[in-house]
Amino acid sequence: MSNQRTRRGRAAFSLVEILVAIALLGVAAAGLAVALAADRRARDLAAAHAATADRAREHLEALASRSCGADTAETTSGSWGTESWRAVAGSGAWHLTDSLVPRQSRAPLVIEAFVACPE
Questions:
Q1: Which is it for strands 81-89 and 93-102: parallel, antiparallel or unpaired?
Q2: Backbone torsions φ then ψ of 55, nearest 5 degrees
Q3: How far is CA 113 from CA 10, 48, 94, 97, in A?
Q4: 29 lies in a domain?
Q5: pTM above 0.85, yes or no
Q6: To 10 degrees, the CA torsion angle through 36, 40, 42, 46?
Q7: Is the pLDDT confidence value at 2 over 70?
Q8: How far is CA 108 from CA 64, 85, 101, 114, in A?
Q9: CA 42 → CA 12, 56, 93, distances in Å?
Q10: pLDDT by residue (tens digit) across 20-52?
Q11: What are φ and ψ of residue 24, in 5° steps?
Q12: By three-state DSSP, how is residue 114 classified?
């Protein structure tokens, strides 16, 4: 009879198995939190790059309609950060340097472009 009892299966998990399962879930949750934080930073940086490209496009379109003349520059600040741009008239073209420092970052995003002056 004692031989039959030892062959019968267990009815529950042991304490060690439960602790190992909880530890694995904790590690997985921590990894997910790190991945989500990195994703948020990447999305914020992408939004800053898109805003910089939009601002530079606006300046390029404005310069494309102006005849080459005196150099122009401007610095503005907003909720998104600080922008500083400068357009230098050269031989038949504007040289635009647009730099934006997003509020979340310390490193400036710089775009340089040349635009032909209208005739």
A1: antiparallel
A2: -65, -45
A3: 73, 18, 8, 7
A4: yes
A5: no
A6: 150
A7: no
A8: 25, 12, 4, 20
A9: 45, 21, 35
A10: 999 999 999 999 999 999 999 889 888 877 877
A11: -65, -40
A12: strand
79 domain residue, yes or no: yes
Say if 24 falls within a structural domain: yes
Q: How many domains does the chain have?
A: 1
In a domain, 47, yes or no: yes
Q: Which residue reads 């310390």 in tokens? A: 106
Give the pLDDT score at 64.
Answer: 75
The 3-state DSSP class for residue 11 equals coil
Residue pLDDT, tens place only, 62-105: 777 777 888 888 888 877 778 888 888 888 888 888 888 877 77
Residue 89 lies in domain: 12-116
Inter-CA distances, 44 with 39, 50, 86, Å? 9, 10, 26
